[in-house]
Amino acid sequence: MSEALFTLVGTDVRLQIRLTPKSKKNAINTIINDAQGQMALKVSVTAVPEKGKANAALIKLLSKEWKLAKSDIEISAGELNRHKTLLLKGGGVSLQQRLIEWMKQNNV
Predict the structure, then answer these.
(1) Tens digit of pLDDT per residue, the chain (108 long)?
(2) How far apart are CA 67 and CA 76, in angstroms?
(3) In whole angstroms, what is the distance from residue 67 CA to residue 99 CA?
(4) Residue span of the structural domain in which 81 resides
Protein backbone atom coordinates (compact mmCIF):
# COMPACT_ATOMS: atom_id res chain seq x y z
CA MET A 1 0.00 0.00 0.00
CA SER A 2 2.82 2.44 0.78
CA GLU A 3 4.15 2.02 -2.78
CA ALA A 4 1.30 4.18 -4.13
CA LEU A 5 1.98 6.85 -1.51
CA PHE A 6 5.41 7.78 -2.91
CA THR A 7 5.24 9.01 -6.53
CA LEU A 8 8.35 9.54 -8.62
CA VAL A 9 8.59 12.94 -10.32
CA GLY A 10 11.84 12.86 -12.29
CA THR A 11 14.51 12.34 -9.64
CA ASP A 12 12.25 13.58 -6.83
CA VAL A 13 9.62 11.79 -4.74
CA ARG A 14 6.20 13.36 -4.15
CA LEU A 15 3.80 12.45 -1.36
CA GLN A 16 0.60 13.75 0.21
CA ILE A 17 0.48 14.63 3.90
CA ARG A 18 -2.47 15.15 6.26
CA LEU A 19 -0.97 17.24 9.07
CA THR A 20 -2.51 17.54 12.53
CA PRO A 21 -0.94 20.41 14.52
CA LYS A 22 -1.26 20.91 18.30
CA SER A 23 -1.09 17.17 18.97
CA LYS A 24 0.19 15.47 22.10
CA LYS A 25 3.30 14.19 20.30
CA ASN A 26 5.21 14.38 17.04
CA ALA A 27 4.51 11.21 15.07
CA ILE A 28 4.14 9.66 11.65
CA ASN A 29 0.86 7.87 12.26
CA THR A 30 -0.68 5.94 9.39
CA ILE A 31 -1.72 5.97 5.74
CA ILE A 32 -5.22 7.30 5.08
CA ASN A 33 -7.46 7.96 2.10
CA ASP A 34 -8.47 11.62 1.94
CA ALA A 35 -11.83 13.03 0.78
CA GLN A 36 -10.69 12.93 -2.87
CA GLY A 37 -9.72 9.27 -2.56
CA GLN A 38 -5.97 10.00 -2.60
CA MET A 39 -3.62 8.25 -0.23
CA ALA A 40 -1.98 10.51 2.33
CA LEU A 41 0.42 10.04 5.19
CA LYS A 42 -1.15 11.19 8.46
CA VAL A 43 1.38 13.09 10.56
CA SER A 44 0.92 14.89 13.88
CA VAL A 45 3.11 17.60 15.41
CA THR A 46 2.97 19.42 18.74
CA ALA A 47 3.63 22.82 17.15
CA VAL A 48 0.84 25.33 16.63
CA PRO A 49 -0.25 26.29 13.10
CA GLU A 50 1.08 29.84 13.37
CA LYS A 51 3.79 31.55 11.34
CA GLY A 52 4.94 28.27 9.76
CA LYS A 53 5.73 26.56 13.08
CA ALA A 54 3.74 23.40 12.26
CA ASN A 55 5.32 23.20 8.79
CA ALA A 56 8.80 23.57 10.29
CA ALA A 57 8.01 20.84 12.84
CA LEU A 58 6.77 18.56 10.03
CA ILE A 59 9.97 19.03 8.03
CA LYS A 60 12.10 18.51 11.14
CA LEU A 61 10.26 15.28 12.03
CA LEU A 62 10.46 13.81 8.52
CA SER A 63 14.10 14.86 8.19
CA LYS A 64 14.99 13.09 11.44
CA GLU A 65 12.95 9.92 10.82
CA TRP A 66 13.92 9.49 7.16
CA LYS A 67 17.50 10.76 7.54
CA LEU A 68 17.11 13.47 4.89
CA ALA A 69 18.48 17.00 4.86
CA LYS A 70 15.81 19.56 5.77
CA SER A 71 16.70 21.41 2.58
CA ASP A 72 15.69 18.31 0.57
CA ILE A 73 12.10 18.45 1.87
CA GLU A 74 9.89 21.06 0.21
CA ILE A 75 6.22 21.83 0.74
CA SER A 76 5.12 22.27 -2.87
CA ALA A 77 1.40 22.77 -2.15
CA GLY A 78 -0.80 23.38 0.88
CA GLU A 79 1.53 25.50 2.97
CA LEU A 80 -1.46 27.08 4.76
CA ASN A 81 -3.60 23.93 4.71
CA ARG A 82 -3.52 20.68 6.68
CA HIS A 83 -3.47 18.78 3.34
CA LYS A 84 0.03 19.20 1.92
CA THR A 85 2.04 17.97 -1.03
CA LEU A 86 5.71 17.39 -0.27
CA LEU A 87 8.55 17.04 -2.72
CA LEU A 88 11.58 15.10 -1.49
CA LYS A 89 14.45 16.25 -3.69
CA GLY A 90 16.86 13.84 -5.33
CA GLY A 91 17.30 10.17 -4.68
CA GLY A 92 14.72 8.93 -7.19
CA VAL A 93 13.92 5.22 -7.10
CA SER A 94 16.44 4.45 -4.34
CA LEU A 95 14.84 7.08 -2.06
CA GLN A 96 11.38 5.78 -2.91
CA GLN A 97 12.41 2.22 -2.01
CA ARG A 98 14.12 3.39 1.20
CA LEU A 99 10.93 5.18 2.31
CA ILE A 100 8.75 2.17 1.51
CA GLU A 101 11.11 -0.01 3.56
CA TRP A 102 11.00 2.50 6.45
CA MET A 103 7.18 2.37 6.38
CA LYS A 104 7.22 -1.44 6.57
CA GLN A 105 9.77 -1.54 9.40
CA ASN A 106 7.81 1.01 11.42
CA ASN A 107 4.39 -0.58 10.77
CA VAL A 108 2.98 2.56 9.18
Answers:
(1) 566 889 999 999 999 999 999 999 999 999 999 777 889 999 999 999 999 999 999 999 999 999 999 999 999 999 999 999 999 998 889 999 999 999 999 888
(2) 20
(3) 10
(4) 2-105
DSSP class of residue 54? H
Number of H helices, E strands in the chain: 2, 6
Q: Look up the pTM and report it.
A: 0.92
How far apart CA 92 and CA 66 sit, in angstroms, is 14
Q: Look at the alpha carbons of 45, 13, 37, 82 in this order and tell me if their dihedral is positive or negative.
A: positive
Domain at 77, CATH number: 3.30.1200.10
Number of domains in the chain: 1
Which secondary structure element, helix H or strand E, spans residue 85, and what is its range? strand 83-88
Closest to 2 (Cα-Cα) out of 35, 41, 34, 37:
41
